[in-house]
Amino acid sequence: MEQDKIGNFIKELRKEKGLTQQELADCLGVTNKAVSKWELGKSMPDVALFSPLCQALGVSLTELLAGRRIDEQERGTVSEQMLAETISSRNLVGLQVMIVLNSLIGVTLALSPILFHPPQPFGAILLCFGLVECAMAVYFDFSLPGKEMRRRSLAASITFAVSEFSLLAAINYPSAMQAGIPPLTFALVFSVPLAAVIVWNIFLKRRRDKKR
């Protein structure tokens, strides 16, 4: 949110309504100095004043916080962008990492009946929990704000790669030991492609940053 932009928008709307700063202040129960500070971008209205201020100026809350008029077609997009801007990039990255880990946990649970052959009905329960976990991860990935920023996160990409290769290694480890494959060879089989995937993600991240 840009305070200067919002302040100018409040000023424009107030003048369109033919109100003075004092008249708008009286409607909201604040001083004219408070209104002046809003319009100069020095401060923001209190959250409790958002609804009465929007009513007095004849705009929606989304338009007020965007600092401009918004048509119906772009209202949802703008709302998501504004919500994403209120969340720090660090929190968005952490959110995506959690989504990735939840999806991998779901896959692991769903595959457990096939891989480990637990007694029934535990196998069916694990399968159901795994499918629900995967469905929740997909839902949150698509519905939570900052989707594009989250998906471009290097930390989330590396977390996914490390978790996926670790899962594959854990699944194949017993078979590899039974086949007599040396532990070092087994480790290289998974660590080399993992390192390549990490380097590739770092390269893509730097390339995207240069294009900005």
Q: Mind sketching the topology for me?
A:
Elements lengths: L2 H14 L4 H8 L3 H8 L10 H8 L3 H6 L5 H14 L3 H28 L5 H22 L3 H5 L2 H25 L4 H29 L1
Helix pairs in contact: 2-3, 7-8, 7-10, 10-11
Walk me through this protein's architecture.
The chain is an all-alpha fold and 212 residues long. Helices cover 79% and strands 0% of the residues. α2 crosses α3 and α10 packs antiparallel against α11. The model has no long low-confidence stretch (mean pLDDT 80).
The major beta sheet can be summarized as: none
Strand percent estimate: under 5%
Rounded to an integer, what's the Rg over CA atoms? 26 Å
What low-confidence regions span 5 or more consecutive residues with pLDDT below 50?
Answer: none
| Beta-strand segment tally | 0
Give the fraction of residues assigned to helices. Answer: over 70%
Overall SS class: mainly alpha
In round numbers, the mean pLDDT is 80
Query: How would you sum up the global shape?
Result: elongated
Please provide the ordered H/E string of secondary-structure elements: HHHHHHHHHHH
